[in-house]
Amino acid sequence: MDLDSYDRQILLALQRNGRMTNQELADQINLSPSPCLRRVRQLEDSGLIEGYRAQLNARKLGLTLMAFIQISMDKHTPERFNAFEECVVAFPEVLECHLIAGQSADYLLKVIVKDMDDYQQFLLQKLTTIEGVSGVHSSFVLKSPQQHSIYTV
Length: 153
Hints:
InterPro entries: ArsR-like_HTH, AsnC-type_HTH_dom, Dimeric_a/b-barrel, Tscrpt_reg_AsnC-like, Tscrpt_reg_AsnC/Lrp_C, Tscrpt_reg_HTH_AsnC-type_CS, WH-like_DNA-bd_sf, WH_DNA-bd_sf. By secondary structure, this protein is α+β, with helices and mostly antiparallel strands. The chain contains 5 helices and 4 strands. Strands 2-3-1-4 form a 4-stranded antiparallel beta sheet. It is elongated and about 55 Å long.
């Protein structure tokens, strides 16, 4: 799908506030409401907009420790990778799971938990019990000063 400047502005605006009304969106990008709504529906139908969700405040939920975890696997087979992925996507602590290349690790996980005690429990009772996990390297987030939208104008 070829995106013009209106489409790009719509994507950027909806990433910042997916709850704005069509009228508010149209006003923001200087387009009348009908063509604006038509463009939003085209972006949804094309799959560029996959959905709308609430962004939760992790700290207010008591989740104060975020970690990036590099996972090494003992075997590089589709069966081993599929089994690992099935396990980790079921863990509520795992926000993201990525199969990666260019590192000594096979996977990169983004995990959020209440505190270091919860992290230890997650690590020892869940993550390292998955068959095939041969190495774990954790990095803890101290600060997240910037989070970008996916698409910018």
